[in-house]
Amino acid sequence: MAEVSFGVRVPNSGPLSSVANITRAATEAEEMGFDSIFLHDHVVWSTAMHRHHISSGAHEALADDQSADFYEALTTIGYLAAKTSSVRIGVACLVMPTRNPIYAAKQLATLDHLTGGRLIAGVGLGSKASKESSEFDVFGVPFSARARMTDEYVEAMRAIWTQPLASYSGRYIEFKDAEIFPKPLQDKGPDVWVGGWTDAAARRTGRLGDGWVPGWLSPAEMGRGAAIVRETAQEYDRDPDNITIAVEKLTVIDTDHDAAMARAVPTVATSSKTYERDVDQIQFALDRHIFGSVDAVQRRVEEFVEAGVTHFELKFIYPTMDELTRQMELWASEILPKYR
């Protein structure tokens, strides 16, 4: 069986986002034996998304006087590199079309050194921050071109990471004989994980990625997507066994199943108010995420593992940091040992 690893999303956004809480979540995850910590990325955010797209924290932690704080991912990784020593640190995912790939390649190479080769560079097409506020409009990036731009930007970054005098020619980015150092500490650069839950994202992973990290997919849907990744990799003469199949999953774990569900449902329900997805029935989310008693969580993890998943990025639902600690301790004592 392939090795299975587990990571924790830290609160660089959401109702509990702060430097202190980011640091606490990261250091505790490392101490408890989790394999990775993850941040996510947007530069432009919105009050609406702050209230309805909760990737860290819980619905109950929202307050009327909160601002839509979202700590920038790459600078925060640099900070966490000095606060941790062994846990891998990733971003899932950079909104790649809004990042200059030459500068991003330099930043990521530097972060690879600062983390001691622990960096995972997730990339995605990105989505609008809200119906009213578009990150792409702010950056002057054509929304319709974001897929092509992401492909080119990943290729351009890899050229910078691997060529002494780097050159690349595409529709959206072009440069010649760019001497950019340091090269990343990891051979050929940090792993590039592709975000997105569409077939196109799975195919992009097979062509370009070292990992696939979708969100709202069921075990059956993950199995289908993993097959697309493998088939595409083989078409491009790449080894599919070298590609990580990961998932982002909201999770609540408790010794009591009903208590876990009572914690999960209010936050999951806020997704019905997010334009990104149509969650008219709570069962849609329950079929795709990981909630419940220890036994229920173990069963759901196994369903994803059987579908080909080898890494879990866990987005715990917690109204306080103490509750996050309690759930991470339970996961670390009851779930992690089964995969060690």
Summarize the SSE layout with pairings:
Elements: E1 5-9, H1 19-32, E2 36-39, H2 47-52, H3 73-83, E3 88-95, H4 101-114, E4 119-124, H5 135-139, H6 146-162, E5 166-169, E6 174-178, E7 191-195, H7 199-208, E8 211-213, H8 219-235, E9 244-254, H9 257-269, H10 282-286, E10 290-293, H11 294-306, E11 311-316, H12 321-334
Helix pairs in contact: 1-12, 3-4, 4-6, 7-8, 8-11
GO molecular function, one term: alkanesulfonate monooxygenase activity
Domain Luciferase-like: 17-283
Organism: Mycolicibacterium agri (Mycobacterium agri)
Folded structure, characterized:
- One of its GO terms (molecular function) is alkanesulfonate monooxygenase activity.
- This is Luciferase-like domain-containing protein.
- Keywords: Flavoprotein, FMN, Monooxygenase, Oxidoreductase.
- InterPro entries: Lucif-like_OxRdtase_Rv2161c (IPR019921), Luciferase-like_dom (IPR011251), Luciferase-like_sf (IPR036661), SsuD_RutA_monooxygenase (IPR050172).
- Residues 17-283 form the Luciferase-like domain.
- This protein is an alpha/beta fold and 340 residues long.
- The protein has one domain: TIM Barrel, CATH 3.20.20.30.
- 41% of the residues lie in helices and 18% in strands.
- It has twelve helices and eleven strands.
- The protein has helices at residues 19-32, 47-52, 73-83, 101-114, 135-139, 146-162, 199-208, 219-235, 257-269, 282-286, 294-306, 321-334, and strands spanning 5-9, 36-39, 88-95, 119-124, 166-169, 174-178, 191-195, 211-213, 244-254, 290-293, 311-316.
- The strands form two sheets. An eight-stranded parallel barrel has the order 1-2-3-4-7-8-9-11, surrounded by seven helices. The chain has a two-stranded antiparallel ribbon with strand order 5-6.
- β5 (166-169) and β6 (174-178) form a beta hairpin.
- α3 packs parallel to α4, α4 (101-114) crosses α6 and α8 packs parallel to α11.
- The relative contact order is 0.14.
- The model has no long low-confidence stretch (mean pLDDT 94).
